Amino acid sequence: MNNTFTKNAVGRMIPAEINGKPVIPFKGVGKHRPEGRKTAPMIATCADYPSDGDKRVAGLKEALVKAGIQNGMTISTHHHFRNGDLVANEVFRIASELGIRDLVWFPSASFPCHEPIIGYMEDGTIHHIEGSMNGPLGRFTSRGKMKGVGVLRSHGGRYQAVQDGDVHIDIAVIAAPTADPFGNANGVTGSSACGLLGFALADSQYADRVIVVTDNLVPFPCIPWQIQGNYVDYVVEMDQIGVPEKIVSGTTQVTKSPDRLYIAELTAQFCEEAGLIREGFSFQAGAGGTSLSIGIYFAEIMRRNGIKARFARGGSNKYLVDMLEEGLVEYILDGQTFDLDGVRSMRDNPRHVNTSPFTSYNYHGKGNFAGIVDIVILGATEVDVNYNANVVTHSDGYLLHGIGGWQNCLFSKNVILPIPLFRDRVPVIRDEVTTICGPGELIDIIVTERGIAINPRRKDLIEKMKGSKLPIKTIGQLKEEAEAICGVPKPAAFTEKVIAAVKWVDGTVIDVVRQVREDA
Amino acid sequence: MNNTFTKNAVGRMIPAEINGKPVIPFKGVGKHRPEGRKTAPMIATCADYPSDGDKRVAGLKEALVKAGIQNGMTISTHHHFRNGDLVANEVFRIASELGIRDLVWFPSASFPCHEPIIGYMEDGTIHHIEGSMNGPLGRFTSRGKMKGVGVLRSHGGRYQAVQDGDVHIDIAVIAAPTADPFGNANGVTGSSACGLLGFALADSQYADRVIVVTDNLVPFPCIPWQIQGNYVDYVVEMDQIGVPEKIVSGTTQVTKSPDRLYIAELTAQFCEEAGLIREGFSFQAGAGGTSLSIGIYFAEIMRRNGIKARFARGGSNKYLVDMLEEGLVEYILDGQTFDLDGVRSMRDNPRHVNTSPFTSYNYHGKGNFAGIVDIVILGATEVDVNYNANVVTHSDGYLLHGIGGWQNCLFSKNVILPIPLFRDRVPVIRDEVTTICGPGELIDIIVTERGIAINPRRKDLIEKMKGSKLPIKTIGQLKEEAEAICGVPKPAAFTEKVIAAVKWVDGTVIDVVRQVREDA
After folding, report:
1. Is the ipTM of this complex over 0.90?
2. With an 8 Å Cβ cutoff, are B51 and A411 in contact?
3. Which residues of B are less than 8 Å from A164 in CB distance?
4. How do residues B29-54 score in pLDDT, each as one tens digit?
5. A340-358, pLDDT tens digit by residue?
6. Chain A partners of B233 at a C-beta cutoff of 8 Å?
7. Nearest alpha carbon to residue A254 among A317, A206, A313, A190
8. pTM attached to this predicted model
9. What are the structural domains of chain B?
10. What burial letters (b/e) apply to A472-487, b meaning 16+ CB within 10 Å?
């Protein structure tokens, strides 16, 4: 194993290998040029599949055995069921029962409901996770207890990794709220409806074996087919694949915190004054309480000025669907639905369109949608004085969040981070972030309850905001104000052990996360 | 060049090479096992594409030059505009003007409107065509005038060939009735609406460079995106890409010929008596006059017996759309729309679903839709006593038709060929067909105005029809009746020169077509 470290383009030390595979350190935005060809699945033949199209097998265990499950394989699942997923745990329960060892779990995201996975890491069934390690899995990993090194990717980076062959999926297990015996599947109907299945697209296209698991089997054809049965090997029926009330469990409460409301208002005012809210514009807000409030402010500005947005990006929720139905937004291009209004709208409204990480975020494509979006509102756990930002670790060093689409969205024309100046008396703006997830050159505006900082690279926005009554400050001023109140924060204490790598959208490594020193 | 010939599994002599490339002779249905991996396109990067998603260039010539057009390249187009296509001819006009030579034209089908292509074959711009050579192009080819050898594939075989890397598309030109600057495109809206763009799917996924040409540019996003902009390199606006009245020019006249009407009635009666028209069944009829009549008889039977079809396969037309709207058919799964009712229905009715050769016909997939269909009604120019059938040449030897989806549809559960016993006093049932396009083992029933022949392999159907009042005969009897009226037909006269190869759905060669002896 090669233990040397190299400093990457944002100054972070990157090991030569992760999980025994060589890695490429981050070179700068747009600087890494991929070489070669996409990965190519084996050519299949209809001669090997039932001529009547009926691919059902008796159960998930049989499907996994038929798919040839073996030690060391990579098994993928998707996260459209969010905290209500019942399938991923079941896959590894069966694998453990079969005595399979050292699997790699490659989810599109993980949730607290996946805490049982810790047991399968402890009993040797799972070697490591490539995907977000939210909550309990993150703590377990941050304590150095996972056998391998976690690999975090953005939604687009996950598609890129599969497409480029960086990750080879041996078996994809795609939980589907509705499916037919041929394997066509969707997320808009059935008792476990989750809206769409876009996060499983790469898995269906590139995995060696694809298993569709459903609790709502319909006769062929399952319409719409968000996942195409032509990629599917086996279809399995299960009693229940998800807990409905936990599937659509996005944060769909508008914030009641006066500080958060003020940040939301400032953000919307900034966008209006800077001329970003104009006829035919586009935006992506998100599902947090502050983001929801920003959406509501946007709607007010649009109504007042008679402005229509050409499209909004989801995650969708009631508020965005209302804007669509009111005609304030012509289209929702949606990557995941966060509530039942989102699911219903996607099912019934042709202007509410399901997307995938391929269309929206894959950096190794001929363009993607991210750069087309005018305004994107994102969160961060920390931002540094050079606008670099962190979304995966907290200031105490624990890895508690995935990247999601965050890195991909940084390619939007105007990237705004509305964040509180401090959380639990810990300043959010720092000299250096604990983990760099996004380079500062892509982050344009920081909005806090004490003022707005514009990245000096955005001379156009600075010019436009001259004479504004909004509290425009430098990021240094904001940091000083926070430190005047909370004091200068102590950096997190780590051991030398790398417990996770953070990939950039092009597959290079932008930072690593180390084991937390629990004695510190 | 290797000039040896080998006899294939249906007894036809197949050359070792075609256009300098080795070929595999047909081995029997389901006998050829593909090896290796699908072809893999180069990995692209967003860094090479406009960050705002605007891929427009000034014109088709500029796009072709930017795409790197060179001698010997393969250029593809699709045929959704049918006889109203204005784009393919323009591509080769520009190529000729640029002095490019020896191109391969790889259309999904050709039509009489493409007669100008003959000029580009004569001036050396085009070396040969891989795709149907209908009408004038077929006569030109049958006279031995094309520089290379034509290669005929079914719609599914075309997808297979691209997917497997048998055909490498250098530049795909996708004419789109509606598109946005990112390259998202569809066929359901715009003045040149043709319904869908499924025949261009493989081209978009696998070509090195993809050019979308449109006469109806809309702001991003173009919804629906039947072609995804993430595969597209350049977008070009043209004044007009198709002649609307020639785009939707399917044969949508119900036959008035008493013989044809009788054949249609016999076919429908046979299906009813054999129990093939049952609750939840599926069928694919087609657009010819006889097929339309069969559809109308089916509708009557279904109404009378209170039967609903789960789905019908398109090509769609007014009659099929009426059945959908009446509720006789739950879904139309459609590969091409033949009239404006088809276009409208596909645009507005979520139960009228666009499909592609990938979903419907690709034999080198994990199954496809063809085998799921209960009844398929197909045509043929000739059938032999072993039920082998021909769809590409006439009995005079001229290559005048493409294969279309015909070979793919042979995998349906019940394949019925309603054909006249003779055409222009030439018997249609022969000892040997001029060109074998489909092996007899896949063809179940021949319906003529003088009787119905059931393939002896279908003991189940023979059993079911015992005691029927329908004129069930052997195929030998039918041949004798025809010859009693018209005499024994003379086989077509050919030179030794192979002018086209007919591929089977798995990429093997099932037959070749030779130059017609015009002195014969």
Report:
1. yes
2. yes
3. 43
4. 999 999 999 999 999 999 999 999 99
5. 999 999 999 999 999 999 9
6. 366
7. A317
8. 0.97
9. 52-130+167-247 (3.40.1080.10), 258-492 (3.40.1080.10)
10. bbebeebbebbbeebe
